[in-house]
Structure formats: C-alpha cells, structure tokens
Design brief:
Length: about 220
C-alpha cells in the first residue's frame, strides 16, 4: 500500500493467501503494460473502490526484495507517494505494526495509516508474502486523513533461474472524496512507479548482501 501498495498497506491476515482475497470474484482488467510491468484493476463487490494488482519478473533474490520492503525508512526512496514510514511496534521477526505517511498532490489531503504487517512463507514453493491491514491505534492523528480500511500484499516467488515473480495487490478506501485523476494515480501510476523503482534498486545490486532473519 496506491498510496503505498508496498506497505499500506503500502507497505498492510492469514486468510489472504494469494495476490487477491480468497472468496472474492475479481474481474481483472489490464490498465497498463510497459517495461515488463503489468497493472490490473477490478471492481470489488460491495465496495465503490476498485482493487489493483501488479506483476513483474525481476532478476534478483527473494531475500533482497523482502529486505527492501522491511527497510521502512527507505520507503520514500522507491514507494510512490510515501513520505515517511517506520515500525512502531515489533511483535516478532514476521509481525509488526507500522506507520506510513503518504504525500498526495495538491489539492488532495495527505493520507496516513497505522497498519498491521505479517509475513508468511509458503512451504515448497519458497513464496514469501507480506500482508498489511490498516488498524486502529499508533501515532496520534496528524493533519493527514487517516486511512481506516486499507489492505495490501506483496508476494515474492522464486522462479529457480535467478529471477523472482513479484506480485502486488491492494484495496484501499481513501476515506474521503478524490478527483478522478487522483484515483487513476493511486490505482495505476503509483503502483507502476513503485514496482519500477523496486526493480531498479534490486537489479542495481541493492540489498544484495542483506540478511533477513526469518529467511535464514
């Protein structure tokens, strides 16, 4: 979690098992395909807001990708619209609570979110997933509009040939009116830019020597 589909999620439940929520009938429509990155959107029954899904294949490792997403202070370096991101409470190596502040273009109010982040590993495939769900608490209210209903996921699946399938999913209620161009920015341009920046960092050697305790 987009705002930050990275962490909103961005950067934010065991029942979320794939690049979408189980039991929801998505009707994905391709919105952008460029430079090896594809962005889709889909209506969500019972919600006025669309879900977004992005995918790409990059050269790199799952460990490097997880390390990048886990490096919360680095969020502004790659996640579109992210101004600030930090862990506020660490529960375990795979669970935390985080705060993210997203800087939206004038005249739209900025958005922030307090989110519960959980990492899971799929036995056999080596697929590593992060799910981020907005929750109550955390940093007191700021001038930004607080997101109350926001969920995002990252999925990193090794292909066995030195590449990784990267998938992102997000469904966000902006908690207030937004112009059509901002909606498009959040649903298409922002996730595309975030994934493009992610690939540039990882394929450029970023986090190549990183270590992730729960992936040792």
């Amino acid at each position: 979690m987009s705002f930050n589909p990275v962490i909103l999620v961005l950067g934010l439940c065991p029942f979320l098992a794939s690049a979408q929520v189980n039991g929801v009938d998505y009707q994905w429509e391709e919105k952008k395909k460029d430079n090896g990155i594809t962005i889709y959107t889909s209506p969500v029954e019972g919600s006025p807001f669309k879900a977004v899904r992005g995918e790409m294949v990059i050269t790199g490792t799952v460990v490097s990708l997880v390390a990048l997403v886990e490096d919360m202070p680095a969020c502004p370096d790659w996640a579109a619209l992210c101004r600030e991101s930090r862990v506020e409470k660490r529960i375990s190596e795979t669970e935390s609570y985080a705060y993210i502040y997203n800087d939206l273009p004038f005249p739209v109010s900025d958005r922030d979110v307090y989110t519960h982040v959980v990492w899971t590993i799929e036995p056999g495939s080596g697929k590593v997933s992060m799910t981020s769900i907005a929750t109550e608490g955390g940093t007191p209210a700021t001038k930004a509009v607080r997101l109350e209903n926001a969920m995002s996921q990252w999925h990193f699946t090794p292909n066995g040939d030195g590449t990784v399938l990267v998938e992102n999913f997000a469904h966000i209620d902006p908690n207030g009116p937004t112009p059509a161009w901002i909606t498009n920015l959040m649903l298409v341009d922002s996730p595309y830019t975030s994934m493009q920046n992610m690939r540039k960092i990882i394929e450029g050697g970023g986090y190549a020597d990183a270590e992730v305790p729960f992936l040792d």
